[in-house]
Amino acid sequence: MRLVALALALLAALPAAADEPKKDPSELKVETRHEVTVDGVAFAYSATAGTVILRGDDDKPRASLFYVSYIREGTDPATRPITFAFNGGPGSSAVWLHLGALGPRRVALGDEGEALPPPGRLEDNPATWLDMTDLVFIDPVSTGFSRATEGQDPKQFHGLDEDVRAVGDLVRILVTRLRRWGSPKALVGESYGTTRAAHLARHLQDGLGMQLSAVVLISAVLDFQTIRFDQGNDMPYWLYVPSYTASAFHHKKLEAPLQESLVKTLAEVEVWTRQTYLPALAAGDALPAAERAAVAKSLARYTGLPVEVCERADLRISQGLFCKELLRDQGKSVGRFDARYVGTDRLKLGSSPDYDPSYAAVQGPYTSGINDYLRRELGFESDMTYEVLTGRVHPWNLGAQNRYATVVESLRDAVVENKGLHVLFCGGYTDLATPYFAMDHTIAHMGLAPEDKARVHRATYAAGHMMYLRKADLLKLKADAAAVYQAATKR
Asked: What is the pLDDT of residue 400?
């Protein structure tokens, strides 16, 4: 990518152009022009890095939200989609989708997503979505450069409903300023960002009258009961097993017949999990000894773990235990975000790894990449820390008392009420944070009529939580999304 014009810094203290909406004087905006080539076609686009001030009912500033937008030049806003993207955490900036999957620039990694020697560097993204949609990346309050304003308590933004209202306000403001109310609009969220996207879709539709054309959910978690390994909650134990199988398959820890075909093996495991393993968990201590022994043997066979480990764990393998146990005989552990990554713990003892090697592999390259990119290529200067992934948002208010948080009904309402909305669920096989089988369970329990379910699409990938780190999956994700965008924007 080459810079085709000098950066034009537009501080709000300067007079606004006559045809430009009035901005808050404390907002910042820097625009640059660039060029990128996608599938052999070169085109120009403008990039804007800036802040928007959110105000309360009393008109006092509440927060300054940071965003980066990319607008392809020479297109018709009436037909050109615009996509708002964010990651999750809670506490994550949008850096992963921004510099990993959707944006015109990408952190350089190996073909399988392995880290290169530091420092991290950027390259043109061959699978950027900018050829099919304009893009806006959003950092929620307390992430990236977004902050609560002076005198405001950031906790007022740290919750399921609170966060959606703030992000929704930003989307509304930017759609208005960019004059895109007439454009097809889409959301892309990853991890907790899928929770936000599902809830936000209904908020935009019911609260602001803004209908979406598409919602893309990458590594989805809409029902937190599916991923919380709590005492008395057996749901994640059976929903995680196929991902354990895929991870063991990758590390060649399964017996020979199961190593022949991942797709065939997963189909077998999914049936066993629903028809045999789930009833066994439900039986609890009432499960006959012979049946218990048979289930332990099958669980070991499908996870690559020793039978005695499955028995000692009461047939319930938590994510942390699996990550520690799969390669314990080699003195290694595997990643939570992506079990393809391998780490080395200080001791072979314990029931969980010392760290997540799949996060350690990308934290440095993405942190240096975003800090260098924003300042050197996009011209946005700030001495603030760009919060890539912060714990300062915790405790996060999920608004769920004596129950697990869920936004399944929010998404269902959006799909049922908006007959033009298409939803794409994307899950990685080796994702041990938000397993693909839990995603399938959520889809199967949305209670949609056949004509509505026809607009809900599903895609799976060989890698994990950030499947786009692997170049083959990066390209597949783009192709899967392009098909959904095409279906969603037909007129």
From this structure: 79
Buried-state track 269-293, b at ≥16 Cβ within 10 A, e below 16: beebbeeebbebbeeeeebeeeebe
Residue 417 CA to residue 205 CA, distance in Å, equals: 9
Rounded CA gap, 139 and 366, in Å? 15
Average pLDDT value for the chain: 94
235's CB contacts (< 8 A; 6+ apart) are 225, 226
For 208-214, what is the mean pLDDT? 97
Q: Report which of residues 421 and 3 the model is more confident about.
A: 421
Closest CA to 210 of 257, 169, 246, 177: 169
One-letter identity of residue 301? R
Please report the pLDDT score of residue 6 as a whole number.
34
Q: Which residue has the tokens 């965008």?
A: 485
* In the predicted structure, residue 357 carries a pLDDT above the cut 50: yes
3-class secondary structure, 251 = coil
Give the whole-angstrom CA distance, residue 65 versus residue 288.
57
* Residue 408: other Cβ atoms inside 10 A: 15
Q: Which residues contact 83 (CB under 8 A, 6 or more apart)?
A: 102, 129, 133, 134, 135, 136, 185, 186, 187, 188, 214
Dist CA 106 CA 98 (whole Å): 8
Cut 0.90: pTM above it: yes
By the 10 Å C-beta count (0-12 exposed, 13-18 middle, 19+ buried), 441 is classed as: middle
How big is the chain, counted in residues? 491
Contact 237, 230 (CB under 8 A): no
Q: What is the mean pLDDT of residues 382-409?
A: 94
Q: Which of 175, 181, 228, 221 is closest to 198 using CA atoms?
A: 221
Whole-number pLDDT of residue 490:
86
Coil, strand or helix at 357:
helix
Three-class secondary structure of residue 85 per DSSP: strand
Q: Give mean pLDDT, residues 375-392.
A: 97
Pairing state of beta strands 422-428 and 214-218? parallel
Going from the N-terminus, what domains does the chain have, and what CATH number goes with each?
2-225+363-488 (3.40.50.1820), 230-355 (no CATH)
pLDDT at 402: 80
Query: Before 25, cis peptide (omega within 30)?
Result: no
Residue pointed to by tokens 């959520």: 442
Per-residue pLDDT tens digits for 50-91: 999 999 999 999 999 999 999 999 999 999 999 999 999 999
Please report how many Cα atoms fall inside a 13 Å half-sphere around the Cα of residue 250, on the Cβ side: 23
